[in-house]
Amino acid sequence: MSRFFSDKFAELEAYVPGEQPKDQQYIKLNTNENAFPPHPAIAGAVQEESANLHLYPDPECRDLREELAKTLGLKADELILTNGSDEILNFAFMAFCDRHIPAVFPDITYGFYPVFAKVDQVPYREIPLKDDLTIEVKDYFQTAGTIFIANPNAPTGIALPRNRIEEILQTNPYNVVVVDEAYVDFGAESCLPLIREYDNLLVTQTFSKSRSLAGGRLGFGAGNPELIRDLETIRYSTNPYNIDRLTLAAGIACLKNDEYNMKNCRIIMETREWTRKELEKFGFDVKPSSTNFLFARHPGLGGEELYRTLKEKGILIRHFSLERIKDYNRISIGTREQMEKFIAVVGEIIQQQ
Ligand SMILES: *Cc1c(COP(=O)(O)O)cnc(C)c1O
Fold first, then answer.
1. Which amino acids bring their CB within 6 angstroms of ligand 1?
2. C-alpha distance from residue 240 to each of 61, 76, 83, 86, 232 (Å)
3. Residues 45 and 180 grouped into a single domain
4. CATH number, position 289
5. Parallel, antiparallel, or unpaired for β 27-28 and 285-286?
6. What is the average pLDDT across 288-314?
7. Higher model confidence: residue 17 or residue 29?
8. Can you give the residue range of the structural domain that contains 64?
């Protein structure tokens, strides 16, 4: 820390993204990227748009917003586009939390939430998950604060049905409820159909997981137009050109070929369930998943040990040192071929126990 760094950030611990080591070729099952490359039409669209890079992008992102509205069956003024969904989540902390309105979220959830709370200088309260790592919906009734719920949750992979989220919305008419649907396309129920009924609902999604665009940095929020306008005020006050021209072009080409993305999601879900069965044969306890990853532990093998041994053998998975989940690992679902290799190596490790 330099002697110039503001005191207000003295205690700030930055978010730590999944490792991207370059020392060797790994099978990367640690950052929940999509197993499939983006649709081939995207390359041409991006190349063509690159001729316009001397010009600023459209700050209103009009064409992409229209295309997204069409894809989702919504109106353009119900949507805001952001640089990954991390940015819309940060905007929500900025717009809807303050000294008197804490952020409220589960103790085990997306690790960025406490970081946003700290960097935005807002208090937060963590509500423990139940012993089985599911959310106790009643704990969120009549909450004094802005609620952040990842659904499906991360890193557990467990989803709540839409009607349970609706109970939280109904019992919190004076609070904004943010539903982070980063993984919703892998088998969970989206709350997008509820945004016209509940003016306190903000749904966030990303192109990073189900649409194979993690490197393009594209996410969005969906909600009542007034809520969206507040978030636009924050966006125009930080970076009105938050989506660059190449990503705008990539996003449009991506949505025009959305059957490709949704088909890949189905393949990943099949591979996920195949991987689950194989892990269970080895004695793993695997949480139900509505995502492109599995959260699993083995009774005879520590989470950290499995992570380290796999890394030595060229396979990366994600281990979290948080006390409650240190026995687990989060395993992203790759291609069928990658997962067969993963299962073979895990089998060898288990046998050597
Ligand atoms: C990956 C992820 C995000 C955001 O990812 P972006 O790449 O910034 O869109 C948000 N929430 C959860 C729970 C995630 O896992």
1. 32, 84-86, 110, 150, 154, 180, 182, 206, 208, 214, 219
2. 10, 17, 11, 16, 9
3. yes
4. 3.90.1150.10
5. unpaired
6. 97
7. 29
8. 40-256
